[in-house]
Amino acid sequence: MQQEIWFQKYRIVKLLGTGGTAKVYLAEHILLNSYRAIKFISKNHPLYNLQQKEAKILKNLSHSSIPIIYDIEENEKGSYIVEEYLEGDTLKDYVRIKGLLLEDNIIRFSLQLCDLIKYLHSLERPILYLDLKPENIIVAGNTLKLIDFGSAIYLDELCNQKGLCGTKGFAAPELYHRGKIDERCDVYGIGKLIYFMVAGNSFKRELTYMDYSDLRKSCSKPMVRIINKCLKYNPTQRYASVTHLSKQLSVINKKKKFQNETSQSIRFAVAGAQTRIGTTHLSIRLCRYFIHQNIKSLYQENNTSRCVETIKKRYQGLRGDNGIYIINGIPMLPNERSTNEIPLNYPVIIKDFGCLTQSNIREFLEAEVKILILGAKDWELHHSEQVLQMVAEYKDIVYLFNYVDGKQLHQLMSSMDRRICYRIPYEPDPFKQPDINCQELFQEILGLTVF
């Protein structure tokens, strides 16, 4: 049987598959003797005009996880998108064939997805994908490729779009309940794919609350928390962006490297918008948390309060080892000691900067994890606004509020431009072993349980 020739250069080999809006064919470029995939969208399809936007979107994209678009053709029957032919299985088939994936592979694939979606979100005209599902992803070797942009849309066209759609069981619930559509929809989509790779299946319905405790047999606790955070029914409770999600995945990914390189310390910088806002209290609580996790940590006084000296005077017979005093089980280094002489056998160093100022902001920003405590009372807001201006261009700072409830935090977040914000659980004794609320806070915002 003679094979069809399309557009005088493509020999149609076979039909690869049929989707809801298109048929995909395997074709051979006659002159170049190489394979192409051709997606045909019929003009008779009711969503033909909507699907044409896929070609317009794809032709301007360039990313290793997006197939190369070689050509776009059109005739009286419909539109034809000629793109790179990918040999591999869909993620759905890949998981079915392989069974449950190792967490290392899941993290690697998840980081690739984050990198791709971050690329789409950071374009001059940001794009929301909205339909992340296993059938739309090809596993080509060790690389994921996204093959269907039929539901993607430019962010600036949302107000003109009435019929947004995605695949139920994977798409964010707000797509079907007239909620606000933004990049957190794709955060939800990535979370569903991570869940699928961990559990080997997806959800059949949307609920306002879901229990992921069953996943703990298949993946680590940090991964369960990431899935839980991504799949919050309320978008405001998810990661504010794919960048935030990617950072949490990266923390897990660095676990083995951290364990193997004990000579390197991770520095946590804690500063406040004003004096007496609780930086020392929180820093000690952080140290206690790490010690509770059997991780050596050091409290370093990077301010002029002389709190370590004051505490030390209340205990008789305290002796310093290399200038470090063990107080209530926590190693504490006074400000007078040179930072160049800190022993290297502390995997974690908590640096208490006190009030953030122009003189210490540079060192604060050099830390791997940066925490800034803000006040929310009427007499504190002026200080908070000033310090926010100082760090406005930095997106990787975690902001904590003292003495606010959930409702107040929600109101504050509306003016925080999607920064990472949490409230500090009340605990009058910083030396006390952390309760569940404190543990969950540190685990979520810092990813510390990977140590």
Give descriptors for this structure.
451 residues, alpha/beta, Phosphorylase Kinase, domain 1, Transferase(Phosphotransferase), domain 1, Rossmann fold, eight-stranded mixed sheet, six-stranded antiparallel sheet, 19 strands
How would you describe the overall organization of this protein?
This protein starts with a strand and ends in a 5-residue tail after the last helix. The protein has helices at 48-58, 91-98, 103-121, 184-199, 221-230, 242-253, 255-260, 279-292, 307-313, 361-365, 381-390, 406-413, 436-446, and strands spanning 5-6, 10-18, 23-29, 34-42, 69-74, 78-84, 89-90, 127-128, 137-140, 143-146, 153-154, 266-272, 297-301, 325-327, 330-333, 348-355, 369-374, 397-401, 420-423. Helix 3 (103-121) packs antiparallel against helix 6 and helix 4 packs across helix 5 (221-230). The strands form 4 sheets. An 8-stranded mixed β-sheet has the order 14-15-13-16-12-17-18-19, with helices on both faces. The chain has a 6-stranded antiparallel β-sheet with strand order 1-2-3-4-6-5, with helices on one face. A 3-stranded antiparallel β-sheet has the order 7-9-10. The protein folds into 3 domains: 5-84, Phosphorylase Kinase, domain 1 (2-Layer Sandwich), CATH 3.30.200.20; 89-253, Transferase(Phosphotransferase) domain 1 (Transferase(Phosphotransferase), domain 1, Orthogonal Bundle), CATH 1.10.510; 259-450, Rossmann fold, CATH 3.40.50. Helices cover 30% and strands 21% of the residues. It is of the alpha/beta class.
